[in-house]
Amino acid sequence: MSYVTGLRCVHCARTYHAEDVEYFCPVCGYVDGILDVVYDYEAVKSELHPSALAENGDFSIWRYLPLLPMNDRTLIPHLQLGWTPLYDVPRLAGELGVARCWVKDEGRNPTGSFKDRASAVGVVKALEKKASRITCASTGNAASSLAGFSAAAGIAATIFVPARAPQAKAAQLLVYGAQVFSVQGTYDQAWELCMQASAEFGWYNRNCAINPYLIEGKKTVSLELAEQFMRITPGNFPDWIVVSVGDGCTIGGVWKGLREMQILGFILRLPRILGVQADGCKPFLTAWRGKSGLVPCDANTLADSIAVGHPRNFSKGMSAVTESGGAFVSVTDEEILQSIPMLAQKAGVFGEPAGVAGVAGVRRAVELGVINRSESVAIVMTGNGLKDIESAIRAAGSMIQVRPNMKEVRRALGAAVPA
Ligand SMILES: [Zn+2]
Q1: How far is the CA of 196 from the centre of ligand 1 (A)?
Q2: Residues with CB under 5 A from ligand 1 (ion)
Q3: How is 174-218 classified by DSSP, letter by letter?
Q4: What is residue 418's predicted lDDT score, i.e. its pLDDT?
Q5: Percent of the chain with pLDDT over 90
Q6: How many C-beta atoms surround the C-beta of residue 214 within 10 A?
Q7: Does residue 207 register a pLDDT over 90?
Q8: Is residue 210 pLDDT above 90, yes or no?
Q9: 20 to 30 A from 231, CA-CA: which of 21, 132, 280, 351?
Q10: Mean pLDDT: which of 251-255, 398-402, 414-418 is highest?
Q11: Distance between Cα 198 and ligand 1 center (Å)
């Protein structure tokens, strides 16, 4: 049995029994009425405390089961998920101009991205509800991860992706056997189409902004960060957690997980959250600077995973930054591209454009004086670089062409060439 006590609307604060509503607050509707899963934290505390975790040999997101909305343990998919490595990377810290820098490599998840955390929970909820099919719209990673976890669980999946999704992600979808609609339009249009199809055909909806359980999977990255930092630097937590922002669900999940770990006593002082957007698509930054509501915009960036002009979880995304006393910054596509080899060469981690946007964001925040040079940062690197080879190759430079003889190798190296 889970410790969920109900679902609370972030807009009107009405609370519902989990059995009474499926996706969103019926009074506020799906645009505003995003629901938040509420737990009995006192009861959670009795099971989830440092000494219990120290003895827990399950190094996956399921070690935090008391903080997850699962009713039936037997439905958990078999793929190894979470407990991704946290690297201390001093050379990257030096490059970015901060005192200390860690990278949490989410590219190590089963389908190569952070989104696996949410898809796993979505698939379990679909199985609990005995749904015949699960669906989502995605810029790419949520789709490929849903395809992978659906395949693992043996449930059918229908996925809507914008035509611009990188080829590697499209390949993942098809290989895992999902039914895929390549929508000749934007992510926002794919999202609307998915919503309509889900309603018409009764498919279980994995869209993170309207399905309250998905963010529960996403928050596990912060549960891990809290525990990992407790192990490596007891009593200390980085000053900033850095994450790139598209729909707002990931950053919202990151913040929820941190607050929960404070309630449970794993973190004494909450960090600030830095949300990083692309210059060509920065609705959160615009609203945060202008202290205004959401104004949807076009999505012009090569970082496909954060190319979201109409964020569906504006409320939770904005709260993460405002409540933590954090900030939003934006970076150019050029800076994102430069960050791919920088992260790879200074930290040994290969990330996709949206994954490395956080690296570029730290540099920008230091330049702006938002992050102080004496502060420490942990960057959540959200997706594996192999997911978008085209961008990587644009950023990486070119090979040295030689014919197969040593003379040419010597000449290329500037070495003496014997006569
Ligand atoms: Zn409501």
Answers
A1: 21
A2: 9, 11-12, 25, 27-28, 33
A3: HHTT-EEEEESS-HHHHHHHHHHHHHHHTPEE--TTT-TTHHHHH
A4: 65
A5: 84
A6: 27
A7: no
A8: no
A9: 351
A10: 251-255
A11: 21
